[in-house]
Amino acid sequence: MNKYRSHNCSELTDKDSEKIVSLSGWLHRKRDHGNLLFIDIRDHFGLTQCVIENNNKFFSVLEKLKPESVLTITGKVVKREKGTENLELPTGKIEVNIQLVKILSESKDLPMPVFGEQDYPEDIRLKYRFLDLRREEMHENIILRSKIISFIRSEMLKLGFLEYQTPILTSSSPEGARDFLVPSRLNPGKFYALPQAPQQFKQLIMVSGFDKYFQIAPCFRDEDARADRSPGEFYQLDIEMSFVEQEDVFNVVETLMINLFKKFSLKKLMNDKFPRIPYQEAMYKYGTDKPDLRNPLMIHDITKIFTREDVKFDIFKKLVKSGSVARCIVTKNTKDRPRSFFDHIDKWAKEQGASGLAYFTIEKNDKISGKGPVGKFFSEDSLKEIMKLCNAKVGDSIFLACDKLKEVEKILSISRNKIAKDLDLIDEEKFAFCWITDYPMYELDEQTNKVKFSHNPFSMPQGDIDKLDFNNPLNIKAFQYDIVCNGVELSSGAIRNHTPDLMYKLFSIAGYDKREVQEKFSGMLNALSYGAPPHGGIAPGIDRIVMLLADEKNIREVTLFPMNQNAQDLMMKAPSEVETKQLKELGIKTDIKKN
Fold first, then answer.
1. Of 65, 340, 357, 416, which has the fewest beta carbons less than 10 angstroms from its beta carbon?
2. Which residues, 6 or more positions from 52, have their beta carbon under 8 angstroms from its beta carbon?
3. 190, 184 in Cβ contact below 8 A?
4. pLDDT, tens digit, for every residue of 54-83?
């Protein structure tokens, strides 16, 4: 036993009765009963109740001591009286009668309490993150994160991968998000960049003859914050494999995810073999390439309905005639829902920037008809055709949208989730994984109407390379894939293009000449020209995986020291100004006008 503790604060049980023990930790909570003072002492491992009588000389010391002060107590373990036990705690059957107290560190008045899990403003929580992390839920989230990362490492080694570390200081990337730049003192006027991802390095590892690589890799991108994305930095499980096809990557990642999610959650997996959904199918059925498969609602195309003479819904008919599409969502057996339910959805859609959602419910009295604001515009025959197209039945309701394709996909995608939540259709006790596959290699830029890469320019196109129709590039699909869970994109990946000549050809279609490609990607092209294996990989986000397993909605709840939405570290006061001397050493002058 050292001078601070003989046991930790989760260790003592009724088997330790009558032992003299020492515990060290934080003063979690006090309860003054007049002649008795109860205190809870807390450390990393748990909590133990201690008690002191008012005739003990340390009574007044503890009475005045502020919460979160650090102390060592020595005393005798005794069983609690029946009726006072706390069976939710491992130590709940005992308490420690305090004999000696030593104050190790006194706390000031707290800007936020540690006891209790009430919400506090984000700026307070981030400024005093060291206090926020003492709270039980936050503490458990960070412990869970550590265990998840350790488990991932062990599983990757079992799967035959080796971990290699790639550089943090590298060259600026010409593609992707904004770089964080680092000025070079030894090379004035030149800059390193922090890696947005180890993409080129992990491909170079394959070119170097290593077979299976992984890394828990820090990545740096100067992007705006979102609930599922930290500003500045994040971690990903970076994976690359040589001599593989797409299915080999899928098998590795599925094995890992199944083992990981079964290990760390009681929730069920909807599928032990993850569905493969082509990109075009995902956009058609769900309006997004990040579908939540727990949601049973589907999107259906009913554009052709509005070419019928017996449909009098003129607004949609004019839109369809001008090139718009009409799609809908069917909700099963919602005939008894009040009008307010449907109006609420319509109002919500307008708040999202859409023109709203038209709706009607299919009824049958003497004949099939549509009940609701737009139901009267549809004949019985047109309603029967809608029912056939959408697998709808009497008693079901139809929500309709009509606009340009991307706008319809956008509003129906979020409406699908909104309606399912309002109808309580999503099983929160399940994880639903899927792969989104067959991404198009190219797309048209809406502003310039020119062909551009749609996803990852370094991916291998599908099909026989010698027979690809480069004259119709929008028909070319790539070996690109995303893995999605519960509507959260965990990662994108691809089988890589390992052939320089093909790379030049693919970039030329997107408007890059050979010289441009050589200038921007000289390191990678040089390496590929010395014999490169076919290779591919993926990089699932660690933060998002932990967020799902911790059942949190915001990534800051599973990150030790996150920044706020303005990319500021309120605790360490970063970013900050630096001394003029430091700037001179780097040959840098600032040109910022102060208000």
1. 340
2. 36, 37, 39, 58, 59, 62, 97, 98, 101
3. yes
4. 999 999 999 999 999 999 999 999 999 998
